[in-house]
Amino acid sequence: xxxxxxKVNVSDITSQTQVKQDNIQLKNKSxxxxxxxxxxxxxxxxxxLTGSSFNSDAPNYFTEYFQKNENKFDLFLDRNxxxxxxxxxxxxxxxxxxxxxxxYSMLLADSIFYSFxxxxxxxxxxxxxxxxxxxxxxxxxxxxxxxxxxxxxxxQVFSNTINSEIEYRFVNNxxxxxxxxxxxxxxxxxxxxxxxxxxxxxxxxxxxxLRETLIKECKYYRFQNLEQRLIKVNLSINPFxxxxxxxxxxxxxxxxxxxxxxxxxxxxxxxxxxMTNKTVCKxxxxxxxxxxxxxxxxNNSSDNETxxxxxxxxxxxxxxxxxxxxxxxxxxxxxxxxxxRPFIDDNSAELVFQLNANENTVIFNKxxxxxxxxxxxxxxxxxxxxxxxxxxxxGINLNSYRRKFAANKDGKERDHLVLPxxxxxxxxxxxxxxxxxxxQLISDSKFNDxxxxxxxxxxxxxxxxxxxxxxxxxxxxxxKDGQLMLIAIKMDSFSGIKEFNxxxxxx
Length: 507
Hints:
Blueprint: H1 10-29, E1 37-42, E2 45-50, H2 51-55, H3 61-68, E3 74-77, H4 81-91, H5 101-113, H6 117-124, E4 128-133, E5 136-141, H7 154-171, E6 184-185, H8 189-199, H9 208-221, H10 224-230, E7 234-238, E8 243-249, E9 258-259, H11 261-264, H12 295-299, E10 335-336, E11 338-339, E12 349-355, E13 360-365, E14 370-375, H13 377-393, E15 402-406, E16 413-422, E17 427-430, E18 433-435, H14 438-443, E19 449-452, E20 462-480, E21 483-494, H15 497-503
Parallel strand pairs: 1-3, 4-6, 8-12, 16-21, 17-21
Antiparallel strand pairs: 1-2, 4-5, 7-8, 9-11, 10-20, 11-12, 12-20, 13-14, 13-20, 14-16, 15-16, 17-18, 19-20, 20-21
Helix pairs in contact: 4-5, 5-6, 5-7, 8-9, 9-10
Region (Disordered): 285-331
Protein name: BTB domain-containing protein
Organism: Maudiozyma exigua (Yeast)
């Protein structure tokens, strides 16, 4: 006798079991007779639906009502007929395409009121956001914000808020509570459309002003990834240090992106040329065509430092101290602060930041032979907001470099941030002329300003010196051993009132 063995597919058994369970659940949901017609009156409008339609999203308000009142087949409700007409399509198995933010709010409210749980879930999990920006309705995909930094945005927060608020009012029968209005945003619809285009992958030609405006719009909507991609930056490899550098405006730096070179163990050999903020000028240059530090002197500023400070014992402890170099002693260079754009960059680069016009002055103190950069106004506040917390983690108190004084002896006192500066490797332009020997400029009797003496913190005094008012400048920030140094990369400056007036344009 031959016994046949039938192969049984386990997946088939599982699927059959699932079908049976689904049929049982469907039977339990079919609490109204499928063929029975029920009449629903909303205001002056009449709707006729079968029990099958109501059972498609059961249990709900209607199934419970007609189950309790078996002999009744009609019902009057003082609700919105337009909204219910849309819900009927859902009950009949059609896809519910929500048009705008008002319809979204009404459908969500009524789906909760009628206890259509499936519809409520579908609305909450809609693939779209709905908003009215400046009087124009927008419907846009949530997946536009899939990038890290864009997802937790204004619309996600508002959507979660309004969903919770509507659910609270109807579940807890708090209809007297004034509801949150539909998602109206008093912003420019044209700019918002540009942001959506950029998020969709479009390439737009942006003027500097338009770029700045769109960055502000990104900040408002919390599109943090797009904001970083809109910021104008320059990434390049420095051929002398073989280190990647990132260049951007000071006000575009996010404090979250600052990283310490000490933590990353990355150093730049170029810093050997900027060990101190002391000048090395000894005698006037004999070259009448030059105006800035001689190349040989600047390239060896740390090694040629021989000038002593008569007031060294009373000098400000926040100033980098000069020490005589011992034979064979190796000085550790400044550690350059690095930067990584949040949500964009995987690796950090050496930071080069740009300071703009009218609020920054390079001060040369002829008496103490020291150099500082004096930062005031909005630039001071931006610098403090950007670097204060980061420098504090490096053991540097930025407030110790704050001073309150008048730029001129008879002027009005205001806040200043006076930081040690090194210009040895800087490309310098003064009054429209390339400057190759700063020593001659400092010793020139025509440039004899009275400058604030930052060598002593507790005293307000002025010394003979030179001021270079910066139009634009590029800087690196060096830190080590609880001290800091601003290292100039490029400076465009002017030195007096006539040069300032020369730059003034007619209206």
